[in-house]
Q: What sequence folds into this?
């Protein structure tokens, strides 16, 4: 089947150029051409999608989401009364909202088992293309150790979601193999503490260099890369030394860490919006007290750290940690990136070309022949007005693989 999407304009993030009176042709899910209407042969049996008034661009990519997290604050009583199947079903609604916000591809940074990706690919429910990490591996007492002081443990391993706590080099090797066996596309480690975990601190490193190296080596053997939840300076540096590909959050970068990232070509995924959501949930009474204090304590350092990385030319890939905030709110991150000095075109690249290259997902982030026919449309020029990408209601058209999955009439 052939689909022809007609828009007022087409923004190519790779070149930064905008083409007027554009058409994107999609056949069997893949782009066959994208450019000016004049000179494009549109087959008359094509399914015509009228996106007059809209600027078209490739579907957006979020490199850090948690589709099985509710995004409505942290309520331990609620978690204790949530069966694992219900937790899984949260991904159905989250996937729809993510797609509606214009994000047609995501990397899930833990929570979603491979079955969520498989279900979306099979068309059981609408959602973005996914890469999954399944389990976020951390040390005993670390960021994903869900033991509480009372002795209860909220991390219930599932057959397809291995236990998240692991210590020691040999155990790390085995656990990474288990996560890969369960269908992971990326490996996720926590090389520092975090804001939402009760028993650790964001400025403390976690896992030893040897443990991280073991994970990186084991992943590489399977052609996979590692992402690190890394907030503490020492945790960032350990991750980089060990060969981790992407640094998530990066609250306390310094000149040396930035130098290492530039040398290694690593990408930074800032997730600037995440601490804002912790504070917003807290103000609504939906966050435990320990998390509020930690979020308030890190927010300014986080901004300063990311600003320094932007100014130094570190590769920035778009990621939000949505699942902390509500699904569908991903686009707000664009405004926070811009506020720290990123040009609008670089903000858009971070969620298209740069994100695709960073996570290594083929055929996304671009509208070249052979890429997936993932197209979104907004009423105006996002280079002039980034707000157009920041709210789901501004994303009036979403096409995934040539199929219209959202159409609002503005
Ligand atoms: Zn996260």
A:
């Amino acid at each position: 089947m052939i689909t022809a999407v007609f828009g007022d304009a087409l923004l190519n993030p790779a070149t930064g150029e905008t083409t007027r009176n554009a058409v994107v042709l999609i056949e069997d899910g893949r782009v066959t051409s994208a450019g000016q209407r004049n000179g494009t042969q549109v087959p008359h049996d094509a399914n015509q999608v009228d996106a007059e008034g809209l600027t078209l661009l490739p579907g957006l990519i979020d490199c850090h989401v948690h589709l099985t997290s509710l995004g409505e604050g942290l309520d331990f009583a609620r978690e204790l009364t949530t069966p694992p199947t219900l937790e899984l079903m949260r991904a159905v609604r989250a996937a729809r909202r993510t797609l509606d916000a214009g994000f047609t591809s995501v990397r899930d940074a833990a929570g979603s088992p491979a079955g969520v990706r498989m279900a979306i690919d099979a068309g059981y429910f609408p959602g973005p293309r996914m890469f999954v990490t399944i389990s976020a591996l951390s040390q005993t007492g670390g960021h994903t150790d869900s033991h509480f002081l009372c002795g209860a443990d909220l991390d219930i391993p599932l057959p397809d979601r291995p236990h998240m706590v692991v210590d020691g080099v040999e155990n790390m090797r085995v656990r990474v193999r288990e996560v890969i066996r369960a269908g992971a596309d990326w490996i996720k480690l926590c090389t520092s503490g975090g804001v939402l975990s009760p028993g650790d601190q964001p400025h403390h490193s976690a896992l030893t260099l040897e443990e991280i190296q073991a994970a990186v080596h084991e992943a590489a053997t399977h052609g996979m890369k590692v992402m690190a939840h890394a907030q503490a300076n020492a945790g960032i540096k350990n991750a980089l030394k060990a060969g981790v590909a992407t640094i998530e959050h990066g609250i306390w970068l310094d000149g040396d860490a930035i130098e290492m990232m530039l040398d290694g070509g690593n990408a930074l995924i800032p997730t600037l919006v995440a601490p804002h959501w912790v504070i917003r949930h807290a103000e609504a009474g939906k966050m435990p007290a320990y998390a509020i204090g930690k979020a308030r304590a890190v927010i300014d350092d986080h901004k300063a750290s990311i600003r320094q990385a932007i100014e130094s030319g570190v590769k920035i890939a778009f990621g939000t940690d949505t699942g902390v905030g509500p699904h569908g709110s991903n686009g707000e991150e664009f405004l926070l990136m811009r506020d720290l000095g990123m040009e609008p075109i670089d903000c858009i690249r971070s969620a298209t070309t740069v994100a695709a290259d960073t996570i290594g997902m083929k055929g996304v982030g671009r509208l070249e022949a052979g890429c997936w026919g993932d197209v979104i449309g907004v009423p105006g020029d996002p280079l002039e007005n980034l707000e157009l990408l920041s709210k789901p209601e501004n994303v009036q058209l979403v096409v995934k693989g040539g199929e219209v999955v959202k159409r609002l009439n503005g």
